[in-house]
UniProtKB/TrEMBL annotation:
Keywords: Membrane, Transmembrane, Transmembrane helix. The keyword Ribosomal protein does not apply. Coiled coil: none annotated. It is a multi-pass membrane protein. One of its GO terms (cellular component) is plasma membrane. This is (apollo) hypothetical protein. The chain crosses the membrane at residues 12-34, 41-68. Signal peptide: none annotated. PANTHER family: TETRASPANIN (PTHR19282), TETRASPANIN 68C, ISOFORM A (PTHR19282:SF428). It is found in: Membrane.
Length: 188
């Protein structure tokens, strides 16, 4: 990825470029005011050409950001809330993210961002970071009582992990729209 070799986040450099662009526009505007008071048209012509070139550079930057958004840090390799779930759930150093997803799933009684299949290609599944035999996190399961989302106790753990989800044991996507919209606001 192009941003891997950068010592600072990509938006830091975007902010510096915007700062430099703003200072340049301020300097050019003072040149324009000064050029209007001069008797000849040469400074006014230079002012016009500089303003036109700044406009073209800004348009080129916008086109570059639209064509290659990862260059300016606008898009990760996997975008959106589903990509964040697949990349960071139960990964070391992202415990707060995992706890937030577990809280949302327990509170909203849902599983995944759109459904439980979001976990199929997650780093958590592919690297087998969780206990053996789990196809979904325990926070996706129907709980025996209102217990902490950090230590879930499913009604039936083995039936919750079945390939065909049973709404008696695993949260179904009845509230799918709410789950995806709230989790998208939290993580996306």
């Amino acid at each position: 990825m192009p941003e891997d070799g950068l010592p600072e986040p990509p938006f830091y450099y975007v902010a510096l470029a915007l700062l430099a662009g703003g200072l340049t526009v301020c300097f050019i505007s003072t040149l324009g005011i000064w050029a209007t008071y001069m008797p000849g048209y040469i400074l006014l012509t230079i002012y016009f050409l500089v303003v036109l070139s700044l406009l073209l550079c800004e348009c080129a930057g916008g086109v570059l950001a639209a064509i290659w958004p990862r260059c300016v840090g606008l898009q990760s390799a996997r975008g959106g809330a589903v990509g964040a779930l697949q990349a960071y759930y139960a990964v070391p150093d992202y415990e707060e993210f995992t706890a937030a997803v577990d809280l949302a799933q327990t509170y909203l009684q849902c599983c995944g961002i759109t459904d439980a299949r979001n976990y199929d290609m997650s780093v958590w599944q592919l690297r087998r970071l969780g206990p053996r035999g789990l196809s979904v996190p325990l926070s996706c399961c129907v709980q025996t009582e209102d217990v902490s989302y950090l230590n879930p106790v499913p009604v039936n753990q083995s039936r919750c992990q079945d390939i065909q989800p049973n709404p008696t044991y695993r949260h179904a996507q009845v509230y799918g729209l709410q789950c995806s919209s709230v989790e998208h606001r939290l993580f996306g």
